[in-house]
TrEMBL record:
<protein>
    <submittedName>
        <fullName>Ig-like domain-containing protein</fullName>
    </submittedName>
</protein>
<dbReference type="InterPro" id="IPR032812">
    <property type="entry name" value="SbsA_Ig"/>
</dbReference>
<dbReference type="InterPro" id="IPR019282">
    <property type="entry name" value="Glycoamylase-like_cons_dom"/>
</dbReference>
<feature type="domain" description="SbsA Ig-like">
    <location>
        <begin position="62"/>
        <end position="140"/>
    </location>
</feature>
<feature type="domain" description="Glycoamylase-like">
    <location>
        <begin position="329"/>
        <end position="542"/>
    </location>
</feature>
<dbReference type="Pfam" id="PF13205">
    <property type="entry name" value="Big_5"/>
</dbReference>
<keyword id="KW-0732">Signal</keyword>
<dbReference type="Pfam" id="PF10091">
    <property type="entry name" value="Glycoamylase"/>
</dbReference>
Length: 558
């Protein structure tokens, strides 16, 4: 006879005994707590809902955070923060509305204009039921423009003179002391720029014309510059690098393989040199010698040696170490039309019309024939690209009445500028501050570096040079922009050498930089608007007349 309980019976009995021993004690798992429901429901700044990024706020903004329930006032101070972009705490007051379900924050003192701030409420905020806020909230807030004038009102003529004179100082006072050439930017030290110096030469001519310096002082500076270019500056097939060392004249590589000739930068320099030659037309030995030296420099540029393997197209770069490895043909439409005009105008190394037609014009494929805002655009990318496309080549080359087989260049530059203006007024990306007074997209510094802004690459940055360099094309719109830059933003962007390079009201950012390639065109084109001086001088060059005819251009100015 078997003794004891079967195993399964003993296990069941043990379970029963344990269950019996637990009677009278609360050992059940408690039910889960209800999910937190205290949450943010709405946010307004000065009564307007704009999400979590708000531009154009008043300097005493009223910021209302609405929640799904009543806030526990004792948790508010620790949960709320108000600070500037640099992290400085901003004192603020707190009030309550809607039975404490709306928390209202307001700075104790007025905020700074066009400045970014951050306002946040963390999950340390609790409801009166001790429910923590479901998730934190952060508001990025930028204050409005100060609409008061920063300087006394001047006549337009006086204002133009003031801006030209201040901008002129970049190329006069800040020029490199040894070479006399223009520094790339205000922080460049020894780095001087070839193209920017070409613009600077034209600025100096305009400065003499305006009486900012004497003709004798200007002539002495021209001798210094031309002498340096002749005897110290490195050249390759007569062409100059993008950057030079201002004391030694040696190349400063623009990039790893861009350590030789830059034909487009050279073209900008030659444009300036020819303008200087035409201005200093006196018969005395000094001016005669200057013209002779300029001719020697210009005639030494071997334009047709930049046709790689004899192809009917010019190439932008040629290096003594890397030869053609940069491999960038100069094709239109962009800022480089002047390169082909000067190459065709050369008295020593000219290109043929076939190089222009097949290279720059890409066998006619240069034609775009777009239409934007009801305006025909013969050439270029959609919306025309950055405005420097219609400015750099036309500092000396007069586009008014200029035509060839591919375009009416007066239509091209005027419509390109008007399209850029209309885009900024329409402001399809909602960039804060864009208006009929604040416009102009071109290459410039920006908060993240440098970019060529355009309607297709709009990062919210306006460059004063864009509208100012367009003054001969859109005088009324450019003058409105000038008034806005000077009178309304002058406390932010009007500095030692005129207007700083760029600004973004969208990001409350203002550059502290000056760039030769932006300062120069603005001053030059203001002069072309006022007197046509630089256009008249450059178009008077006999070789330019011949070169334009060689390429099939028609112009009332040649």
């Amino acid at each position: 006879m078997k003794t004891g309980y079967p195993m399964i019976t003993r296990l069941l009995l043990g379970v029963a005994i344990l269950a019996g021993c637990g009677k009278g004690k609360d050992t059940a798992t408690p039910p889960p707590l209800p999910a937190a429901t205290f949450s943010y429901t709405a946010l307004t700044v000065d009564g307007a809902p704009r999400g979590f990024v708000y531009e154009g706020a008043g300097v005493r903004p009223v910021i209302r955070f609405r929640f799904s329930g009543k806030a526990d006032r004792s948790t508010v101070p620790a949960a709320c923060a108000f600070s500037s972009r640099t992290g400085t705490a901003i004192p603020f007051s707190v009030t309550y509305e809607n039975g404490d379900s709306t928390v209202v924050l307001q700075p104790v003192s007025p905020l700074a204009y066009i400045t970014r701030y951050q306002v946040s409420i963390s999950t340390a905020l609790q409801s009166v039921k001790k429910e923590p806020l479901l998730s934190g909230i952060t508001l990025q807030l930028t204050t409005q423009i100060d609409s008061t004038d920063k300087f006394p009102r001047l006549s337009d003529d006086a204002l133009l003179t003031l801006v030209q004179q201040r901008t002129f100082q970049y190329f006069w006072d800040f020029a490199h002391p040894v070479s006399g050439l223009a520094r790339e930017r205000n922080t460049s030290g020894e780095t001087v720029t070839t193209g920017g110096s070409g613009f600077g030469l034209m600025v100096l001519v305009a400065g003499i014309h305006r009486g900012f310096i004497t003709r004798a002082a200007g002539l002495a500076r021209m001798q210094q510059i031309v002498g340096f270019l002749q005897h110290k500056a490195v050249k390759y097939q007569g062409a100059f690098p993008h950057w030079l060392h201002g004391t030694t004249g040696q190349v400063i590589p623009f990039s790893a393989k861009d350590n030789g000739a830059d034909l487009v930068e050279t073209a900008f320099l030659v444009q300036g040199l020819l303008t200087v030659r035409q201005y200093f037309n006196g018969n005395d030995p000094t001016e005669t010698g200057l013209r002779k030296d300029i001719n020697a420099l210009c005639d030494s540029v071997q334009w047709n040696r930049f046709q790689k393997d004899g192809a009917n197209v010019l190439y932008w770069h040629r290096s003594p170490d890397y030869n053609w490895e940069m491999n960038l043909p100069v094709r239109g439409w962009n800022e480089a039309l002047i390169t082909y005009v000067l190459a065709a105008s050369s008295r020593t190394y000219p290109i043929t019309k076939a190089v222009y037609d097949e290279g720059w014009a890409d066998k006619g494929n240069i034609r775009h024939n777009g239409r934007y805002y009801g305006l025909a655009l013969p050439l270029g990318p959609a919306f025309g690209g950055p405005l420097f496309f219609s400015q750099y080549s036309f500092l000396g080359l007069n586009p008014m009445g200029l035509t060839d087989a591919y375009a009416d260049y007066q239509t091209q530059v005027l419509h390109h500028t008007q399209i850029n203006y209309q885009y900024c007024v329409a402001n399809p990306k909602g960039m804060y501050g864009y208006s009929s007074d604040c416009w102009g997209l071109t290459a410039s510094d920006n908060p993240n570096g440098y970019t060529a802004s355009s309607p297709l690459n709009d990062v919210g940055v306006i460059a004063p040079t864009a509208a100012l360099s367009a003054m001969p094309y859109t005088p009324a719109a450019s003058l409105r922009a000038l008034h806005f830059f000077y009178y309304k933003l002058g406390d932010r962007i009007w500095k030692t050498y005129g207007f700083t390079d760029a600004f973004s009201l969208q990001q409350a950012w203002f550059a502290d930089s000056f760039l030769a390639i932006d300062q120069g065109p603005a001053m030059i084109m203001m002069e072309n608007y006022r007197s046509g001086l630089l256009w008249q001088l450059f178009m008077s060059c006999p070789e330019i007349k011949s070169g334009l005819h060689r390429l099939g251009f028609q112009s009332p100015h040649v």
